[in-house]
Design a protein that fits this description.
globular; alpha+beta; single chain; 2 domains; 6-stranded antiparallel β-sheet; 330 residues; 9 helices
């Protein structure tokens, strides 16, 4: 299944970052303060109430909206499981990990801003992110076409776990999960039967078109582990913002598990001659939270954009055994 639910996850993340940073800007005497920079020593009940109401409302509205926009029109069944390991070459699994990590990060900062201590903030943020993500899995579990995915659930836990582990060990996020994507171009290809297949039409059916495809096209997405060089190597030799990143993506994905499908007229398309393969990247990145500005607007904008891997040159090694250099990859 195309995990278009990730669209709502990312939009939710950006909305909440903006809300929290705006609230901080209004309440803090520090003109350029962010969630990361404000030390809270005592519980602020009004802030905690704001965080709780905002989170609960967003979760409720998001869950109800997701049901009516996605699940309502699909047949239901008794709760069941579905093994989707290696679906979409596991790019979607890393997408789950990224979403859970990003939500844990955001909610942790919100609880810290409200005055909870580290352990409390980590507990409630990881539990909240797991609830957000697991709601989707449970809805899948009651959908006849899909099912509850243990691999998706495990990927969610990995994302939250990565955040919690770093906070417990380092008291900071030296390594961040980030996301990048682009609008892909598709042409024609001959399948095993010699039919000339319009891959652009197939991609539109699967991933949508234009800006929508940026969040849905698994052939265009890369999930990154982005580490700050100064923090990782305990040095000040590099610019504060400079990160080193390793990423994963995939190509030639025209179906969840394989490149075989049936057109609306019943015609079978067998595109297994287009080999599906994984891509591993090495690139630089920018930690936008390390860029100093006195503008509250740009501080918030940088925090929102920091979930994205910045465009840089990249070295690609793929599972076809090819080594490629890309001038710009995003």
């Amino acid at each position: 299944m195309i995990d278009s639910r990730r669209i709502s996850n990312i939009l939710l993340l950006l909305f909440l970052v903006s809300s929290f940073d705006h609230a901080i800007a209004q309440s803090s005497p520090q003109s350029n303060a962010t969630i990361d920079q404000i030390a809270i020593d005592t519980l602020n009940k009004n802030r905690l109430k704001f965080i709780t109401i905002t989170g609960a409302s967003t979760y409720t509205i998001g869950s109800v909206g997701l049901y009516f926009s996605w699940y309502k029109d699909y047949p239901t069944s008794s709760f069941h499981f579905f093994n989707d390991f290696d679906e979409w070459h596991n790019v979607d699994k890393l997408g789950h990990t990224f979403s859970a990590y990003s939500q844990t990060d955001l909610i942790y900062k919100g609880f810290k801003w409200a005055g909870l201590n580290d352990d409390q903030s980590l507990l409630w943020s990881s539990a909240s992110a797991t609830l957000f993500q697991s709601t989707i899995e449970i809805m899948d579990g009651f959908s006849r076409q899909w099912g509850f995915s243990w691999t998706d659930f495990g990927a969610n836990l990995m994302g939250s776990g990565l955040y919690v582990a770093q906070q417990k060990v380092w008291k900071e996020q030296k390594i961040r999960l980030k996301f990048s994507s682009h609008i892909n171009s598709y042409e024609f290809a001959n399948d095993l039967r010699g039919q000339n297949i319009d891959l652009h039409s197939r991609a539109n059916d699967l991933f949508g078109s234009g800006l929508e495809s940026i969040l849905k096209d698994y052939n265009a997405q890369t999930i990154w582990l982005s580490g700050n060089l100064n923090a990782l190597f305990n040095t000040d030799r590099f610019p504060d913002w400079m990160n080193i990143s390793v990423g994963y993506g995939a190509q030639n994905l025209y179906g969840g598990f394989d490149n075989v499908w049936f057109e609306d007229d019943g015609q079978k398309v067998d595109l297994r001659n287009q080999e599906r393969y994984g891509q591993f990247y090495l690139s630089l990145d920018a930690d936008l939270s390390k860029i100093h500005t006195s503008s509250k607007f740009f501080r918030t904008l940088l925090d929102v954009l920091n979930v994205l891997k910045m465009p840089f040159s990249a070295l690609e090694i793929n599972t076809l055994g090819e080594l490629k250099f890309k001038i710009i990859h995003f």
